[in-house]
Fold this sequence. Notes:
194 residues; mainly alpha; Ferritin; 2 domains; 7 helices; 0% strand; elongated; binds fe (ii) ion
Amino acid sequence: MSDSAFKKIEKRLAKLATQQEAICARLEALEDRVATPSSASAASPEEVIQLLDGFRAGEALGAASIAAWLEVCSTDCVRGALRTVQQREAMHAALLEDRLRALGAEPTLELPAADAEQAMKDLGSSEHSDAKKLLDFTERIPDAALLLKPIYDMADRLDHDQETQWLLRSIAQDEESTVTLIHRACALLNPQAA
Ligand SMILES: [Fe+2]
């Protein structure tokens, strides 16, 4: 083999080695991403605390406003459903507060007073019928999946804290049940809207 042909082959081999190194580096990066799919998006402690505290405050208001509705509720089937829903909301608020404290935080978030007052006034009103309140609810929350997306999304980012992850998933499942129940009661009392 001539000297120039030998040099040509040597050059090609060097080029191939460089290309091979680049391919190996890309493969390693891909392997890392497959091995730890959620590590890049794992929720930070601050995000978890913020979500738990906000969710807790919402559930506490839910429990209080449904209790106010129960006091003026005049429909048997709605009362039966609301009793369960109200207890669940209160239980969720307590569970979320417990988890918050277990993670070393205190419940601090307070919902805007105007929002809380409005919720109490709307649901506690004896001027609005149960059918109207159910209709308002279903119009405000037509779809449980949309409402619960932030909760399920956060749970998916909590592989490093499975206790909070499954607490959120189990509460979200209760919420799905509540939304389904309210929609059924609404359809029963508002047949014209169905
Ligand atoms: Fe709730």
